[in-house]
Design a protein that fits this description.
Layout lengths: L1 H6 L1 H20 L4 H26 L6 H15 E2 L2 E2 L3 H23 L4 H27 L4 E2 L5 H23 L2 H11 L1 H6 L4 H27 L1 E2 L1 H4 L3 H13 L5 H20 L4 H15 L3 H27 L1
Antiparallel strand pairs: 1-2, 3-4
Helix pairs in contact: 3-7, 3-8, 3-10, 3-12, 3-13, 4-5, 4-10, 4-12, 5-10, 7-10, 12-13, 12-15, 13-14, 13-15
């Protein structure tokens, strides 16, 4: 399906039009709070697609997203602190992604020999470990609980997050269409067979794990400038580990646009329910999630594919009818 989009001029033009409208939205129709919402939605999309790059093809359930995202947040808190800006914002974002990348390389090298529930448990425990280490440092060394970050305007934050999103989607597409992506798929299907065929499975897993962490860290670095105040509980919130998994399941992981649809729909539904039904939103949210899992096993991407196939059958039927009449 991804290849079909790039070969079909209509679908490719539609994709480019959506990107152009999204990129120019703060200049025309999305201003103020709408721009802030769109930045938040893009943040969830970046985290979810980053998670899918590694976990979808390999089958490894990583719950370390909050660790990499939180590292990016704290990088901004340290280097772009309110009243003490040490480096320009683009450099801070690049450093936040780089630190997450290096940390993921270290963690992946040590732990990606684990499989199944053991890897999931370790990655989730990693989030808690980092949170408590940072908390200990803040309380006992700096004497504070959290840090303030120098704010940037909402348009700047949006465009930086949009740039991260575009680079991430290009990276995900190139990985999927490359031999590297084929190696990832073979690892997910049968890791031992992949190793016997000559694939360096540890290297492939570790590098992909680190690439996904880079984008999570970069997203955290720019979001810190919107949240302004950062502490260990905010930065290393376990929700940032579980939300990408749920968003990817809702959207579907078979196509690149699936996680995008799932993250956007999930984030929009969450915000709508919290605003309109603050006392019942978790109950409604749970029912909606169960309904999607039960009735859309392939996620929203599967629903889109079914609609496209029905439209094609209808179109072929209509054309066949016209030729029969002539």
């Amino acid at each position: 399906m991804d290849r079909v989009i790039f070969k079909n001029p209509f679908l490719l033009g539609l994709l480019l039009l959506i990107l152009i409208l999204l990129a120019t939205s703060p200049l025309h129709f999305a201003q103020g709070y709408t721009t802030i919402r769109m930045t938040t939605f893009l943040m969830y999309i970046v985290i979810t697609v980053s998670w899918v790059i590694f976990s979808a093809p390999t089958g490894y359930m990583s719950l370390a997203s909050a660790a990499f995202f939180g590292i990016g947040l704290y990088t901004s808190a340290v280097l772009f602190g309110k009243g003490e800006v040490l480096l320009p914002l683009p450099v801070v974002i690049a450093i936040g992604g780089a630190i997450s990348f290096c940390f993921a390389l270290l963690v992946g090298t040590l732990t990606l020999r684990l499989k199944g529930i053991y890897f999931a448990m370790f990655t989730f425990g990693l989030v808690e470990l980092i949170k408590h280490l940072v908390m200990y440092y803040e309380f006992n060394v700096t004497g504070t609980r959290g840090r303030t970050v120098a704010p940037v305007d909402s348009d700047t934050a949006f465009y930086v997050m949009f740039t991260i999103f575009v680079v991430l989607m290009l990276t995900a597409y190139l990985i999927r269409r490359s031999r590297f992506g084929l190696a990832l798929q073979s690892i997910g299907e049968d890791e031992e067979a992949a190793a016997h065929s000559g694939i360096n499975v540890t290297m492939v897993k570790v590098v992909t794990f680190a690439i996904s962490a880079f984008f999570m860290g970069a997203a955290g670095a720019i979001m810190a400038t919107r949240w302004i105040y950062i502490d260990p509980y905010i930065a290393f919130n376990p929700l940032f580990s579980f939300m990408p998994v749920l968003m990817a399941l809702v959207g579907g992981m078979g196509q690149l646009y699936g996680p995008v649809l799932g993250a956007f729909g999930f984030a929009y539904l969450q915000e709508f329910l919290i605003t309109e039904y603050p006392y019942y939103y978790m109950l409604i949210f749970g029912f909606a999630l169960v309904a999607v899992v039960v009735y859309l096993p392939n996620g929203l991407a599967g629903l889109v594919q079914n609609l496209i196939q029905r439209w094609r059958r209808w179109r072929k039927g209509g054309l066949a009818g016209q030729y029969a009449n002539t």
